[in-house]
Design brief:
EC number: 5.3.1.17
Largest sheet: 8 strands, mixed
Structural class: mainly beta
Radius of gyration: 18 Å
Family: Belongs to the KduI family.
Strand content: 35-45%
Order of helices and strands: EHHEEEEHEEEEEEEEEEEEEEEEEEEE
Number of domains: 1
GO biological process, one term: pectin catabolic process
Function: Catalyzes the isomerization of 5-dehydro-4-deoxy-D-glucuronate to 3-deoxy-D-glycero-2,5-hexodiulosonate.
CATH architecture: Sandwich
Distance between the termini: 36 Å
Number of strands: 25
Strand order of the largest sheet: 1-3-4-11-6-9-12-13
Helix content: under 10%
GO molecular function: 4-deoxy-L-threo-5-hexosulose-uronate ketol-isomerase activity; zinc ion binding
């Protein structure tokens, strides 16, 4: 497991491009038949991926967690951005299709990942946070009929925002948040930009009560997203390619502009789960 330390905004303003990428960019995710995990000291979030192709992949705690098993003192959210896959949790199998997700509560011991078809492997994206209580493990679908162990994203949690004129017409799909999937602190969702729109999270904001990680995907090889970060009066940028993630501290804005439409998954951890608890940054105040 790769370890990343926390960073002060007083230091970040002096970083060059290479150092910015070393501290905040998570590259080389989604490696075949491998689990990759990055542990950040910022709110102790773990960001990672599992790509089972020819074998089943088992999630282990590793020496870094000093735990008997990965979710001994943690909770986890997973969203699949690849082919259909299977997540097995303490012997129970869950089929997770493209853009479906799971919340896995603290205390789940044996967790493994597999693909339904090795020619179209699953790509499981993972966010994990420290936990103090066990909440029910559930499969999360965007559409369908609710049943035991399955949560359907509510209509009010599929929020359409922006406009084509503002180049930010998008739909925010909230997968994991209070009132739909209960957690200790983790929230996750997926924002899909409409064709012709390129801006996300604009006007931008910060939120001192929680940090965030973005995973950008659905980006063609010859395209990119310019991810903006830093304090509102000391902004910086990181160029993002397909299936790369970026860590956003609570003091940093987190906004992006692409060369064309794209999709991103956001994950948040911290002490406040109020989705609308944000400190907005006026356009004229950004520097």
């Amino acid at each position: 497991m790769e370890l990343r330390t926390a960073c002060s905004p007083k230091d970040e303003k002096y970083y060059d491009t290479k150092r910015l990428r070393e501290e905040f960019l998570i590259d080389d995710l989604f490696q075949p038949d491998d689990i990759k995990l990055v542990y950040s000291h910022i709110d102790r979030i773990i960001t990672g991926s599992a790509v089972p192709v020819d074998k089943e992949l088992k999630l282990t705690a590793g020496d870094e967690l000093r735990a008997e098993y990965f979710l001994q003192r943690r909770e986890m959210g997973v969203i699949n951005i690849g082919g259909a896959g299977v997540i097995t949790i303490d012997g129970k199998k869950y089929t997770v299709e493209y853009k479906q997700g799971m919340y896995i509560g603290m205390g789940a011991r044996d967790i493994s990942f597999a693909s339904v078809d090795s020619a179209k492997p699953a790509k499981f994206y993972i966010n994990s946070a420290p936990a103090h209580k066990t909440y029910p493990t559930v499969l999360i679908k965007r559409e369908g009929t609710p049943e035991e162990g399955v949560v359907i994203i509510k209509d009010e949690n599929k929020k359409e925002l922006g406009s084509l004129e503002g180049a930010n017409h998008r739909v925010i799909n909230k997968y994991i948040l209070p009132g739909q999937v209960e957690t200790c602190q983790l929230e996750m969702g997926m924002t899909e930009l409409k064709p012709g729109s390129v801006w996300n999270t604009m006007p931008c904001h910060t939120h001192d009560r929680r940090m965030e990680v973005y995973l950008y995907f659905d980006i063609p090889e010859d395209a990119m997203v310019m991810h903006f970060m830093g304090e509102p009066q000391e902004t910086r940028h990181i160029i993002m390619r397909n299936e790369q993630a970026v860590i956003s501290p609570s003091w940093s804005i987190h906004s992006g502009c692409g060369t064309q439409a794209y999709t991103f998954i956001w994950g948040m951890v911290g002490e406040n789960q109020d989705f609308d608890d944000m400190d907005d940054c006026a356009m004229q105040d950004l520097m």
